[in-house]
Records
---
Amino acid sequence: MADENLHQPVIKEYLGEYTEKVLLPAMSNLLDEKFDEKLEPLKTDIQKLRNEMQALSAKVTNYLELSDKRYLELKYRNTVVAKWVKQIADKAGVEIDLAELEKY
């Protein structure tokens, strides 16, 4: 038993060094490879989502610009029609309040 006790510190030291110098770096490399394998598809998917979001943002921006333009056109048209109605009403001798017409 005395001989076994003498060798234990040497074995522990060897295993400690082996673990530190060989096993841990090998495990680290293996984990890095596995992580990279899983990470690449995620990066690709994230880039696709970013591209789709940019495309949707551009579409929404274009739609809003067209909506604003159409709104201004309709507002102008409504003002013109209100003035025509006012002129016709004035010629017919009917009192019309333009503020009432512009509400609609």
---
Amino acid sequence: MLWWVLKRVSCGYGVNMKVFRKFSVTIALSISKHYENVF
């Protein structure tokens, strides 16, 4: 039972990290585009 809960939590954490990485990449791209427009 405990192993199942741990597996679910680690799987959810991996999904959250994937979404967070995608989100941070999107933010970095938008920031770089913004700076390209400024300069």
---
Amino acid sequence: VSSSTTQTKPKLTLDECFEYTTFPFIRFSPDGQYLLYQTKIPSWNSNDFENILWIYNIKQQHKTIITRNLHKSIKPQWSPNGQWIALFLNKLPANSSDQNQYQRLMNNYPQIEQYIYLYSLSTNDLLPVQIGKDIPLAFTWPNTDLSLYLATTNTQITMDNNSDMNNEEWKDVIQYRQNKIYEQSSIYRIVIDEHNYLLPAKRSLVKNVPFLVGELLFVPLQSKLLITSVSPLIESLEVFEIYSIDLRDIVSLPVRLTDDESLESGLRLSKDGTHVLFLSRSLGSGRKEFNDTQARLYSMNLIDGQITRLAQSFHGDIYDYALNSYGGLYILGQLGTEVQIYSQESLSSDLILHSGWNGTYESITVSNQNNFIAFIYSSTQIQWNLPQSKTYQWKNEDDHQMIEGLLHYPPGKFQVKNLPLLVLIHGGPYLGSINRFLPDWYSWAPLAATEGWLVLEPNYRGSSGYGDKFISDLRYRPLSLPGRDILYGVDQLIRDG
């Protein structure tokens, strides 16, 4: 970049850190003609974030806002034929932000009729479908546009067991017991009246389960529902598992499909409908000495229950994945400070790196019709006059382990010596610092560098993106080993001037 071009770029200020936009969700329509995506923008007047859902017509290159009040956590879904988009709106009261997230969900959720909304591509109407007063947790379409499966938790529980919530002496104990009462879900089949979508939907109970449901996925070939169990209180990782419910025999108990003490998420069905893919992250164990790993991708055979690890040759952290129409998949994987796109032509083939721009590919979706790819990308090399950064490496001289991190120089001072140093240490400890631009409360290294600091973000032992051993080395030395990793980096910077 020439010096004249650099001078015309605006300087990063604190204002940008309070006005940034993120893209939490993107998804192609089944026919590949539309792209659905979400933007999240700070809304200072409401002391909240504005979650906007957009639909983009690819052929006409035209975008339309569906709603400015999208639900914060339940993602929208295309119907099987692509003519409808099912979504929830945010119904939490504005004054609910002063309580913990789970208590806010239960105690402050409006005791009113709830609706799932259907957006019509043919009329651009957003139609409310009444579903009762229970709090929605997750939903999925089956193989028809006229019904849905919905997981909820019952608000009446909170009303019947809320008398002692203000007892100061036993506040923590009561709140704990109260939270445990909430941890149950009901799964319903919602049948929509195709002649009048405004009529209340017919709701029939499928199953009550003694845990909260995180995700739902319908399996057409076996007429089953796959569900993930979750809990806001991580007391035991055995709470987080995958179950199946046979819709042809709803009297039988849910069948537990995993038993690995890991956090499972991102359930997606293979193109032939015989396997379910999911992401898994291990965070300790009550049965084993140590099993912390980076996020991995697995495939489960729904016929015999066999679980196979995909992308076994990849030694980094898997962020996200998407299936293509040929049965292969794309993976977003972090190695070091970069998150790049990889592909597997089949579930058993080798992994292929698709070298792209330096930076971070944060989300990916693939069209079933033409294999178009849409992704969210971020890097420090944007239109602002940002600090220039590079990957910086050094050795821990105790065990000769190579360590690296990101080094941010003030604008116009790349590779300049004798700068004041700020060491910005990431948390986690698994959340390694990566090459992306996200000017929020947590990732403020570019802002500090803009003010004249040389900022080092060290990816010490325990950081993701460097293999499972790099994480497991942290065991029994959570302070001393990362501390030595970081201090040797500072020593190396001093020697380098």
---
Amino acid sequence: MRIGPSFIKIGKAILYPVSELDRWDKFNLVVCRPSRSLSLEEYASAG
């Protein structure tokens, strides 16, 4: 599938260059915004 940073496999060990991990992290960063809480009026009307 080739998803993820490049790596080197030596026997059973898999090694990732730190620069590749940093680049992959930056590329796959998901920014979440805080959830919006409902006021009492909105909560009552919602259900």
